[in-house]
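Need a sequence for this fold. Nothing fancy.
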């Protein structure tokens, strides 16, 4: 089993904060203190310079431990299989009896609390992600989902006002857009305001009127060209 050095350091830091909160700067000379020391040594032994890391951990956390006992403890840690030195977050949380209150207070990330199930942690993470997404959307000044859904065609269903189906309504709207585009090309962009985003339908009379006006303007332009040509002889 190979553990990334960044993850190993994070877990060692979590254990240090936890035991410092519980016992202070040094561990007590008791069964609880020796169990905590072993947990620290198990993670420290997986460093590149494991022997030196363990000696430094004992000197800092258990100065009351004599050299013979320290050597015996280090030898026991070195004989422990690697996968047992770095257990899962759930197993270690149950072993050190980490509470959810301690986890939040000390910002522990590599150990799971024993008094909260994995399902509860997943639901809590989902709720946290949803709040983060909501804050980002508000900061970007995006529409709330309710307002966005209210303007969806599946909600408004404008084709029902005309007593037709959605496909027929979309075909009519496409014809209206084409007529408006042809009017823009003939009369110029400044002659009319292009509004292809509205969902109101033009009547068949208005569409025919737009086509007639387009043909009339073309005919007038051709007549004017003929008159100018005749005047020039």
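Here you go.
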């Amino acid at each position: 089993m190979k553990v990334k050095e960044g993850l190993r350091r994070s877990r060692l830091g979590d254990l240090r904060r936890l035991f410092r909160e519980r016992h202070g700067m040094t561990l007590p000379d008791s069964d609880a203190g020796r169990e905590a020391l072993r947990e620290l040594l198990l993670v420290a032994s997986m460093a590149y310079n494991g022997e030196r890391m363990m000696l430094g951990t004992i000197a800092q956390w258990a100065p009351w431990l004599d050299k013979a006992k320290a050597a015996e403890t280090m030898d026991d840690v070195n004989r422990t299989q690697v996968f047992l030195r770095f257990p899962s977050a759930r197993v270690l949380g149950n072993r050190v009896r980490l509470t959810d209150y301690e986890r939040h207070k000390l910002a522990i990330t590599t150990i799971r609390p024993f008094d909260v199930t994995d399902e509860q942690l997943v639901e809590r993470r989902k709720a946290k992600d949803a709040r983060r997404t909501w804050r980002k959307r508000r900061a970007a000044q995006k529409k709330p989902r309710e307002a966005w859904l209210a303007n969806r065609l599946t909600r408004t269903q404008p084709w029902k006002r005309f007593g037709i189906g959605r496909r027929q309504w979309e075909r009519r709207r496409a014809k209206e857009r084409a007529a408006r585009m042809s009017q823009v090309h003939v009369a110029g962009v400044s002659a009319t305001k292009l509004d292809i985003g509205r969902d109101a339908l033009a009547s068949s009379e208005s569409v025919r009127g737009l086509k007639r006006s387009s043909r009339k303007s073309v005919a007038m332009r051709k007549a004017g060209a003929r008159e100018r040509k005749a005047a020039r002889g």
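For context: The longest helix spans residues 204-231.
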